[in-house]
Amino acid sequence: MKLLIDPQVFNFQKYGGISRYYTEIFSRIEKQTNNKIINPIYNSRNIYFNESILIGPKQILHNFIYLLMKLLGKNLRDYYDKKNIKKTISKLTKGEFDVFVTTYYNPYFLDYIGDKPFVVTVYDMIHELFPEYFQDDSFNVVQNKEILLKKASKIIAVSKNTKKDILRFYPEIDEKKIEVVYHGQSIKKSDFNIPSIKLPQKYILYVGSRATYKNFEFFLDSVTPILKNDASISVLFAGAGEFTEEECGKFKALGIMNQVNQYDFKENELGTIYNKALCFVFPSKYEGFGIPVLEAMYCGCPVVLTNYSSFPEVSDNAGVYYEKDSVEDLRDKIVMLINNSEKRKKHIDLGYKRIQLFNWDIATEECSKVYKSVLKNNS
Question: Same domain for 134 and 219?
């Protein structure tokens, strides 16, 4: 089976769950004897792709050219993004592939794919559920996603909850067309004790974006009394860049400026950050899946999250659930984990057990079955 891969996500995402998913899946498929990944990418900003077996001499050369030109003051990002798409169109037109795998929702390829099958993965339905957060959506996600969902040979949903949400918005789609394939996680046990990271002694962990539906201010309102009650506890915000002036103003107004830290981690440092935390809090209003939940469980870090969206499907009884939109209940659950060592150990152990159900090898096998099924249907 020859899979032609779409460069979209590798064009715009430096790192993140979507590009991580595809890199892990495509890298494993490439190793399989009877399968081949046709890779049209000249150059990518994506750190996962650039560290994977998917990158070949051509990509290494163009990455070098890109970096050299950047040092000389010329940014070729837009040039290479367009070149990646142009090369993909050339591959589509020649038709020397079996299945096309689109990595995001731009339907540019429909004019060139002919009668070849394609598969689209839906990571979440956030744009449809929370349109107020995406008023300036340059990707036209909702409109483009609808086009692809209706035309795709198969749809992969990253959770049963995401499949349910797809059918909620598009009930005309045959549910048999949608297959659920869970994610895995990529942290290694060797990453649990990286001595070069300077971490607070006792900290509550928050990972990733602090914008919009991630519920950052709700989280702050919950943890502020905990921090004020115990000066030895702090919050570590991992990733998403330095604090903005607005965020710093909020911290100062709450009187917690000296108990908040931000750290932009390297990939191999994330295991240590989870492993040393008192707990990981995921206050997001919605996630299609939520890879950080798997990461935390794998690293022996208890997870506090709401009993909503895909969360109970992923963490099951390993998660510590708070009542949706309740600042007080979230605070109570965090305090319980901090003060009750037996409960903390119980949820860590349940997390170790739960994580056994999720890995990239399983995900690759299930994705391969989906790709092969459309090949059979198309022959």
Answer: no
Specify whether the CB–CB gap between 48 and 20 falls below 8 A.
Answer: yes
Q: Do 151 and 207 belong to one domain?
A: no
Q: Pull the structure tokens for residue 169.
A: 């918005």
What's 300-338 look like in SS3? CCCEEEECCCCHHHHHHHHCEEECCCCHHHHHHHHHHHH
> For residue 150, which amino acid is it?
K
CATH of the domain at 134: 3.40.50.2000
Q: Are residues 32 and 148 in the same domain?
A: yes
* Eight-state DSSP code of residue 195: T
Extract the runs of DSSP E, i.e. beta strands, from the chain. Answer: 2-5, 36-38, 99-102, 118-122, 154-157, 178-180, 202-207, 233-238, 260-263, 279-282, 303-306, 320-322
pTM equals 0.94
Mean pLDDT over each residue of the chain, to the nearest integer: 95
Alpha-carbon distance of 342 to 348, in angstroms, equals 10
Range of the domain at 257: 189-357
Q: Two tokens at 327? A: 């600042």
- Give the tens place of pLDDT for each residue, 123-148: 999 999 999 999 888 889 999 999 99
* Best CA proximity match to 177, nearest among 156, 158, 159: 156
